[in-house]
Structures are given as C-alpha cells and as structure tokens.
Amino acid sequence: MSRNRSKLRNRVVNAAEETLARQGYVSDVLLGIGWLDQPTFKRWQRGQLPYLEQGIQTKPSRVAEAMRLFRVWAMEKRLEPSETAYVARARQGEGQPAA
Predict the structure, then answer these.
(1) Residues 6 or more apart from 39 whose CB is under 8 A from it?
(2) Is there a contact between 33 and 12 (Cβ–Cβ < 8 Å)?
C-alpha cells in the first residue's frame, strides 16, 4: 500500500470509528476527514445544494478511493448498508405555513 493510500486509509478509519462510537452508525466520513464542512452539509440537507459532490473539497478520484477504503472497513466490521432519505425542509417564510 502506498504511503498516501495508507494515510488516507487511516483518516477514513479514524473518522468512521469515531462516528460509529458517537452515533451507533456511520454517515459522515467526509465530514470527519475534512473534505466536507458542516455548513455545506447542512445546506445540502436543506435542499440548497442540489448535489453533495458540489461541496466536497477534493477531487472525485480521491473521494472514490476514500469510499473504497470505507467500504472495506465497513465489510470488516460486518456493518449493514442502509439508505437514508434526506427530505429538504423549506425554512419558514418560503411558502410553508408556520407550524
């Protein structure tokens, strides 16, 4: 394994382990390794950013490699994948009545 790939693997595993310990599931590895910031992630969740990829701060090939490393880690941990639907919520005053 190259030195750069080994460093990336360590970053991915550390972020995943920390998130798993904190939440009981892993959903934000890109936040944990610093390629996505919290405000951008929140904008995407609210539907203000159409594609999460637009907010990631590295090239697509690095993201793909990180996701491959994450997948290997998750398989070793025997974690089960699941999808989560993020429903954009309009802020009050954007055509939605106040609750």
Answers:
(1) none
(2) yes
